[in-house]
């Protein structure tokens, strides 16, 4: 086997190993939320933020990769297209299941389905707490 064959083999093995590792990290740090709280459609007029950064479970860093919608009933988390191609699914978490753990100036750490999730405070604050009136 020539040099090109060895390099190709190494790249293929690396791609397979990385795919397995990413899938394992996603399944332990994101899937518990999705399984417990499957995605539902947001209500019309919900607040929306695109391409926000979140950290889930300490191992999964989703920089600029989550679209967030917030309505009176749910916190809707939707992975960006690239993450959806990798098999990640969205979740809609009832606000009463979002447990605030730590509040900093711009970030909020919450616990959802046993997973610690850290992200922008503006996205993880319930509309009633943020002083946003419900849209009738």
Report on the structure:
The chain is an alpha+beta fold and 136 residues long. The protein is 31% helix and 35% strand. It is built from four helices and seven strands. It has helices at 3-29, 31-36, 81-85, 121-124; strands at residues 47-56, 60-70, 74-79, 91-94, 99-103, 107-112, 115-120. Strands 4-3-2-1-7-6-5 form a seven-stranded antiparallel β-sheet. The longest helix is centred in the N-terminal third of the chain and has 27 residues, at 3-29. It is elongated. The chain starts with a helix and ends in a 12-residue tail after the last helix. The relative contact order is 0.17. The mean pLDDT is 91.
Summing up helix and strand content along with how strands pair, one would put the structural category as alpha+beta
What proportion of the residues is helical, as a percent range? 25-40%
Terminal Cα span: 69 Å
Proportion of residues in extended strands: 35-45%
Show unreliable segments.
Answer: none
Compute the number of helices: 4
> Biggest sheet: strands side by side, in what order?
4-3-2-1-7-6-5
Order of helices and strands: HHEEEHEEEEH
* Mean of residue pLDDT values: 91
Basic shape: elongated
Largest sheet report: 7 strands, antiparallel
Gyration radius, in Å: 18 Å
Question: How many individual β-strands?
Answer: 7
């Amino acid at each position: 086997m020539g040099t090109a064959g060895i390099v190709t083999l190494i790249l293929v093995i690396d791609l397979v190993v990385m795919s397995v590792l990413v899938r394992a990290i996603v399944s332990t740090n994101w899937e518990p939320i999705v399984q417990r709280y499957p995605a539902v459609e947001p209500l019309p007029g919900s607040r929306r933020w695109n391409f926000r950064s979140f950290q889930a479970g300490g191992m999964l860093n989703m920089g600029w990769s989550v679209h967030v919608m917030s309505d009176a009933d749910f916190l809707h988390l939707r992975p960006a297209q690239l993450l959806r191609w990798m098999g990640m699914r969205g979740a809609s978490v009832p606000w009463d299941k979002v447990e605030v753990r730590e509040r900093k100036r711009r970030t909020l750490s919450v616990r959802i389905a046993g997973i610690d999730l850290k992200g922008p405070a503006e996205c993880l604050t319930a509309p009633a707490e943020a002083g946003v009136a419900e849209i009738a």
